[in-house]
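<instruction>
Derive structure tokens from the sequence

<record> Sequence and structure tokens follow
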Amino acid sequence: MAIRILIVDDHELLREGLKSMLSRESDMEVVGEAAGGREALAMCRNLRPDVVLLDARLPDIDGVEVCRQLQEEMPEVAVLMLTTFSDADLVLAAVRSGAKGYVVKDVQGLDLKRSIRQVARGEVAMDPKVVGHLIQHMRSPGQEKEEGRSPLNRQQLAIIRLVAQGYTNREIAEQMFLSEKTVKGYLAEALRRMGVKNRVEAAMVASKNGWI
């Protein structure tokens, strides 16, 4: 079945451009467009999309708050934040609100489509530039370094290091000459040991502690 997508952005030309591009994909269907947060929440309740492309800055309700409300009401809906901003604090807020991905608006078409497919499968999709901003933020002066050795083994640390560079599970599998299933298993165990919910948090925690 096609991935049902709702586009949320206050710029009509951008919405139209995204709709035109995504509608050409055989496995994607744009089921609606919204210009603001309240409209987006109402449309999600009616349409139940699989993926919401959500601008972080909206004229009525902040995109992060829209994401938080969506995840409370409809956790099955995957939110992919799409914005011109790559501010580390904004990205952290989006991740903590439940966003499954974060890409900036200069992303190439193929990369955006791949990110949509990733979050639709339940994976996390982060623009490598965004991940880089996060890691730099976590390593910046004034950030308190947590004590303690890494709870991960060498293989798990290698995977988290590649996660922090923006690689998908499939790409990590190719890099490490492992099966994708094995990578998923290592990653799941790494998240459990670190006490985090997703790969983005794992990359941030590992960076903050100097493990990668």
Q: What stands out?
A: Residues 180-194 form the longest helix (15 residues). The beta strands are 3-8, 28-34, 51-54, 78-83, 101-104, 125-126. DSSP finds ten helices and six strands in the chain.
